[in-house]
Amino acid sequence: MDWGTDLWDQGEVIDKHTQAGLDLVERYIKFVKERTEIEQSYAKQLRSLSKKYAKKGSKDEQDCRFSNHAALQEILNELNDYAGQRELIAENMMTNICVELIKFLQDLKQDRKAHLSDAKRAQQNLESSFKHLESTKRRFAKEWAEAEKATQQAEKTENDANTTKIDVDKAKQHAHARTHTAEECRNDYAAQLQKYNKEQNHYYYTEIPQIFNKLQDLDERRIRRLAEGYCQFSDLEKKVQPIISKCLEGISAAGAKVDAKQDSVVFVEQHKSGFERPSDVEFEDYTQGIKAASSDSSHNLPKFRSKLWPISRKHKPPPAEDFSHLPPEQRKKRLQAKIDDVTRKLHMEQETSEALEKMKGVYEQNPNLGDPSTLEPKIAETAQNTGYLCGELAKFETWLSEVMGADECADAVRNNNNNNHTPNTIVTSPNQQNIYTEFDDDFDEFSQCTALYNFEGKSEGTISVTDGELLTVMEEDKGDGWLRVLRANGEEGFIPSSYVKLSS
Predict the structure, then answer these.
(1) Which long-range contacts (CB under 8 A, 24 or more apart) does 318-323 make?
(2) Which residues does residue 471 pair with via DSSP β-bridges, in sequence order?
(3) What is the value of pTM for the model shown?
(4) d(CA 356, CA 14)
(5) Among 31, 185, 403, 479, which residue has the least CB neighbours within 10 Å?
(6) What is residue 241's three-state secondary structure?
(7) Which residues pair with residue 492 across a beta bridge?
(8) How many CB atoms sit inside 10 A of residue 120's CB?
(9) Longest Cα pair distance anywhere in the chain, in angstroms?
(10) CA distance 82 to 326
(11) Which residue, among 116, 117, 120, has the nearest Cα to 14 in the 3D structure?
């Protein structure tokens, strides 16, 4: 079945139907555009969300090795990748559906307009031919009536006895002329009728069917292309579905990696000081042999402080380069981190040096590529940096070996004391001897404070603290709005006075 055969007389219906089809394509394009806007907005919100909950706080928090912290960061990273796939869906829909359908729709509109113009032109030609036929027909009818009238008048004149022969001949000539004109009009009418019938047959059986069939082909092409657009709507998302599934699997895997026991071990390793617990305080019986106040023993009474780390505010030395101001375990961690950093920088300098040497060899073999002498300053600078980093690495390794040796010595002493079961003996390492000293009056008891808010120390001399963290005040506010505090991990620096609450 085709439109040209079965819908030969439904031109207006075909016009409305094809226009409705084009309107449907435009409607679908608008629908896909709004879908892409939703996808883009969704992806943008997901990116903002993952950024909002990404790592915050101090450098220690950002480098946190706890599995539950790391899992959240992995989830946020996977969510960011998931947002990228939503953006890709929106981009592909806009390119493969909207843009392509808009171009296709423009072509359809032009073709439809051309076909309808051809149909309108053919109809106008047929109507013009029919009007000419009607005009010829009316002229024939008029001339034939005039001829009959002239013939009747000639017969009447001939039968009239009072009419002269001249009048009779004149009437007959007039009737003959009219009849001849009527015959010519009749022949014109017959020829025009034959022509019109031929044009009408061509119009209804050839021209209009061809145009309507072209419109049918156009509409079917529109339907097929629109169906492809419908399928693309889901296919474009199916293509990225494996990646989206991997993102979701990554989120599940991040949750499965969380290990509560291991996090506790990491926390212990990160913060243990390595010192022994204080031994029991001995009972001093003052009822036995109390001497006068001026006795020497009165000058040797032990003095106690409520804090474990009494430090002189007046004579506190700046943090040492070898981190000797830190507890042993913390010192080992800081030295090892320093060694790792220097090793990384040394490796980069060595790679740079090798690359420069290779480039110099290429320039020497092919002078057209460059002058080898221009690389000498950079090679010398790299060699100097390498030597400096080697010295730094040796220095920190020496300090680390000293700490490791001191710890081994302390372990031996502890094992020996445990074997001898010596009561009330405090085992001390060399580091401990620098801390557990006689508490004389030169040491002041430092006050403590609690952080009320999170603070990120980004400028030089400041440190980052977290809400609720207990801090030791090393230097009070001198009117500039800043306190110098000491964290439990050994970090020291300035924070705003308004960010803390002093302990009573």
Answers:
(1) 319/490, 319/492, 322/396, 322/399, 323/399, 323/490
(2) 449
(3) 0.54
(4) 77
(5) 479
(6) helix
(7) 486
(8) 13
(9) 196
(10) 44
(11) 116
State residue 63's pLDDT score.
54
**Span 424-457, pLDDT tens digits:** 333 333 343 343 333 344 434 568 888 888 888 8
β-strand 482-486 against 470-475: which pairing, if any?
Answer: antiparallel
Alpha helices in 309-450 (DSSP H): 328-365, 376-420, 430-433
Quickly state the pLDDT bin for 300 (edges 50, 70, 90).
very low
What whole-number percentage of the chain has pLDDT above 90?
A: 38
Query: Of the ranges 49-58, 132-141, 227-236, 318-327, which one carries the lowest mean pLDDT score?
Result: 318-327
CA 331, CA 273: separation in Å to the nearest integer? 9
- What torsion do the CA atoms of 373, 375, 376, 379 make, to the nearest 10 degrees? -160
Q: What residues contact 43, with CB distance under 8 A and at least 6 apart?
A: 83, 84, 86, 87, 90
Lowest-confidence segment of 29-33, 325-329, 401-405, 460-464 by average pLDDT: 325-329
Q: And the tokens for 196?
A: 């019109």
Residue 30 has φ and ψ, to the nearest 5°, of -65, -40
Helical (H) or strand (E) element with 274: none
| Dist. CA 15–CA 23, nearest whole Å | 12
Q: How far apart are CA 323 and CA 402, in angstroms?
A: 12
The rounded Cα 256 to chain-centroid distance in angstroms is: 26
With CA atoms as reference, report the closest residue to 491 among 457, 454, 449.
Answer: 457
For tokens 């970090």, what's the residue? Answer: 491
For residue 122, the model assigns a pLDDT of 93
How far is the C-alpha of 461 from the C-alpha of 491, rounded, in Å?
A: 11
Name the residue with tokens 């010829």. Answer: 136
Q: Two tokens at 296? A: 């020497």
pLDDT by residue (tens digit) across 304-361?
Answer: 343 444 444 444 456 677 777 666 777 777 788 889 888 988 888 888 888 888 888 8
Contact predicate 174/157, CB 8 Å: no
- Residues 182, 185, 189, 195, CA torsion sign: positive
User: What pLDDT is attached to residue 32?
Assistant: 96
Residue 454 buriedness (CB in 10 A; 0-12 / 13-18 / 19+): middle
* Mean pLDDT of the 286-300 span: 51
Amino acid residing at 347: H
Buried b / exposed e along 413-434 (16+ C-beta atoms within 10 A): eeeeeeeeeeeeeebbbebbee
Cα–Cα distance measured from residue 304 to residue 57, given in angstroms and rounded to the nearest whole number: 36
> In this structure, is the dihedral angle defined by the CA atoms of residues 264, 265, 271 and 275, taken in order, positive or negative?
positive
Cα torsion for 176, 177, 181, 187, to the nearest 10°?
40
Chain-centroid distance, C-alpha 34: 18
